[in-house]
Amino acid sequence: MSAAESEALRAAAERGARALGVGFPLIQAGMGGVAGPALAAAVSDSGALGTVALYKSDGEQAAALVTDTAARTRAVFGVNVIPEVAGRFLAEQIAALLDTADRPLVLNSYGLPPADTTGRVLAAGHRLLVQVGTLADAAAAADLGAHAVVLQGVEAGGHHLGGLRLRELLAGYGQAPPVFAAGAVGNGAELAELLAAGASGALCGTAFVATDESAAHPRYKQALVRSTAEETVVTDRYAIGWPGRPHRVLRSEVTDAPEPLPATMIAWTTVTGRRRPVPRGSAAAPTIESEGLVDQMARYAGLGCTAVRSVRPAAAVVARFRAEFAAALADAAHVPAR
């Protein structure tokens, strides 16, 4: 790579950051139950885009989450919605964003949102970020007026929106909005490689689960620290509450059983402010409020878990990405072109 190519990557990163109104083109994923106000604020204060997850919150709960996050940071942050599981609460969540936001924010939609929703959000001066798993949906997101699109490959942890690997998606992307890459992005050097492949930034979930501010259960965090990419698997065993989407998780008794294990209650957790039983096979991730057989719950993890070697403050994760990215560009600029 020449110095000119290195500078082109720097320009791509700046384009991605500008699209979201942040200083560094790294997005913390909206992870239901895990990505609360503390995590979102810490990431945004570090110059990346923190995201607070609304998941299945009703309007009152969503408003409280947005207000709490805004009180913790003066930076731009994202508000994550999942149209296919929010159901009737989606309209309430959007109303909460529009009614409580005290500054322009980023609506981070997991999957394509309804056009009437995006119109209201854009008209109010907020940015739109849409995560997709196919090139057709990427084109649809561009048509909705998205400021940026996230292409999610099957290397990613959590639920999958498509069936292709990340590099295949990036190779076929040709839309106008800047594109962010999701799937096995574990460090700043890998971010630089993805920019060389056409991206303008990255979205990471796994790297932020194992942080001090994450609401993930301590045993979940430690499992990530000990894990490798080979210890993740794409399965359909955690479909209760979110059917129809394959998901990448850490392997467990649930995923490794030859046949699905009985969907008996294995834990308790708090979801949208209520204490609820967790059946085996539930889509709920283990949080700090979970009790019981948390190692059998859905411990979402992408192939980038190999880079997670300790539980650290979110600011330290962002700082590491920044330093590694800068070092990769500096090294590349000093390598003679071939």
From TrEMBL:
The keyword Ligase does not apply. This is NAD(P)H-dependent flavin oxidoreductase. One of its GO terms (molecular function) is oxidoreductase activity. Transmembrane segments: none annotated. InterPro entries: Aldolase_TIM, NMO. The keyword Oxidoreductase applies. SUPFAM superfamilies: Inosine monophosphate dehydrogenase (IMPDH). It comes from the Bacteria. It is an enzyme of class 1 (oxidoreductase). Its EC number is 1.13.12.-.
